[in-house]
Amino acid sequence: MRQRIRKGILAFSVLMFPLTFFFLSPYVIVLSATTGVINGSAMVFGFLLLCSILFSRIYCGWICPGGAVQDLISGANKRNWNSKGKNLSKYIIWAVWFSFILFLWIKHRPLKGEFLYLYQMDGQYMMIYAIVMTIIYLFTISTGRRGMCHSLCWMAPFMVIGETISDFLHIPRFRLKPNPDSCVSCKKCTKECPMGLDVSHMVKSGNMDSKECISCLACVDICPKQAIGFGISKKRTH
Question: I need a labelling partner for 20 at 20 to 30 A (CA). Which of 130, 141, 170, 203 fits?
Fold first, then answer.
């Protein structure tokens, strides 16, 4: 039932994507910064960072329309796309992109906030939307499950930073909780993970923390022995 609800929310998010695309755009935030404006996308990215301090990457697994689109496409290519090198690329892209935004904000001080700045549903908007959707489609088809989340996503680093802040300050946040003694190594959790993580190994090791985990709870719901739990807790110290 829980996964039906999650997939239903993601399906609705995809339907609303033409309207919400503006607030998730990596381009509009740059365009707004050139005029000293903190626009809606900047506010949304900041909100996601703050939320991740407590709720980790739940947004990615339950709400993100880009992730939902990839889940739909992954039926055509279920190959896992997950490694340190592939995951690193999104942080390099994010660092260059966000450094440029900070430069523009500093250059065009004083800043002002305007949530709907530049928001306009016109032909150019829909053209950009179509281009981005095509990129998501082609990249996912050529890489595999949530390939864009692993390698290109400009929003994930904000939430990873939020998780890192939470752990550094010992703030309890949403996380998976393994029970290694209950695991029978059926590896259903690994097969079900939309991010291609080796969940079975994570359970056996007693450490479920992963910066690539999107808290979708698919592994929790597929496990026949309830070897994976979840809740709000501090990072385990060994």
Answer: 141
Tens of pLDDT, residues 133-158: 999 999 999 999 999 999 999 999 99
Judgement on whether residues 77 and 190 belong to the same structural domain of the protein: no
With beta carbons less than 8 A apart as the criterion, state whether 154 and 26 touch: yes
Q: Could you give the CA distance from residue 72 to residue 32 in angstroms, rounded to a whole number?
A: 32
Same domain, 126 and 81: yes
pTM tops 0.85? yes
Pick from 170, 195, 209, 175: which is nearest to 55 by CA?
175
Q: Are residues 143 and 198 in the same domain?
A: no
CB–CB of 195/146 below 8 Å?
Answer: yes
Q: Which of 163, 185, 207 delimits the end of a domain?
A: 163
Collapsing DSSP states into helix, strand and coil, what is residue 154?
Answer: coil
Instruction: Sort 109 into a burial class: Cβ within 10 Å, 0-12 / 13-18 / 19+.
Output: exposed
Are 90 and 120 contained in the same domain?
yes
The CATH number given to whatever domain includes residue 215 is: 3.30.70.20
The 10s digit of each residue's pLDDT in 30-54 is 999 999 999 999 999 999 999 999 9
Domain holding 88, by residue range, is: 2-163
Sign of the C-alpha dihedral, residues 15, 19, 22, 24?
Answer: negative
pLDDT of residue 235: 85
The dihedrals phi and psi of 128, each to the nearest 5 degrees, come to -65, -40
The tokens for 153 are 């996503």
Is position 238 within any domain?
Answer: no
Interior angle at CA 66, CA 60 and CA 70, nearest 5: 95
